[in-house]
Each structure stands twice: as structure tokens, then as C-alpha cells.
Amino acid sequence: MAQLKVDQLADYLLCEARQRGVVLTHQKLQKLCYYAQAWWLVLYEEPLIDEDFQAWVPGPVLVSQQKRFGAFRCNPIVHDLTPSEITEPVRRHLDEILTVFGADSEDSLERMVCEEAPWIKARGDLSRFEISTSLICKDAIRVYYASLE
Asked: Residue ranges of the alpha helices (H) in 21-62?
């Protein structure tokens, strides 16, 4: 059973990043959500969120968050949000994700995820810039990132 709803995940990351002075664009938020899910799967062997990521050209994408924040394009997301209550283990995990990946640029994060096996495998034979809505398998994510520990 997932720990968070997808909007809770995005809202927490956006609010915490803002408090830290970290600017999040839509695509950077997507990558942070992806890494939050990936490392939660490794650590707890269960999903942090239920929604699957799709293997889009710029990397893993949660369609729900694309619909929410896609209009910001490459601009900082400036919604006024109040994160809902989350458990302490989840908060610590998300804070660690921001600490590790928050300083990376959107471009750097895109290069990273697009060179990693789960995204590549989900895209199959497609070229780097062909459109895809293929799902990135949670088990493939867990196995790949567990191999990096």
C-alpha cells in the first residue's frame, strides 16, 4: 500500500524546496518524484506512490503532475501550496531526496535518468527523442536502484 497520494508527494517537495531556496521547474519536480519513488522501493520494497511513471522523452513523468504543472513549462512552479501531514519516515526520506538531488539542475537530472536502465528498458527500441507513454515498471526501478547500493 502506497504511503502518499501523488499530489502529497509533489506538494511536499515543492514546499520544502521553496523553504530551502531551491527552484523547481515542472521537469525537475518530476525527477525528484521519480527518485523519491525509486529509493523508497529499494529501502522498503513497497511503492511510495501508486501512480506509474511513463517513459517520456525528458525522462520519467507522472501524468497527473504533468496535468497539474505542465503549463509552467521551464519556469519555476509558483503555486501557493500547503503540504498535508506525512509520516516522519516519509518526511525524512523526502528531505534526503532534496538534499541529494535538489542542487542538481533540471538538465543534469534529465541526463541521469535517461541513462539509467528503467527508463531505457521502458522505451524499448525507441530512439532517444521518440514520443512514448510506456510505463516504467516499479519492479525494474527497484531492482536497478538496489543494484547501486
From this structure: 26-44
pTM of the model: 0.96
Question: Which cell is 113 given?
Answer: 535518468
Nearest one of 36, 38, 45, 39 to 11, comparing CA atoms: 36
CA 128 → CA 56, 80, 114, distances in Å?
Answer: 9, 35, 8
Task: Spell out a b/e string for 65-76, using b for 16 or more CB atoms within 10 Å of the CB, else e.
Answer: beebbeebeeee
DSSP summary character for residue 129: T
Using one digit for the tens of pLDDT, what is the confidence trace for 87-138? 999 999 999 999 999 999 999 999 999 999 999 999 999 998 999 999 999 9
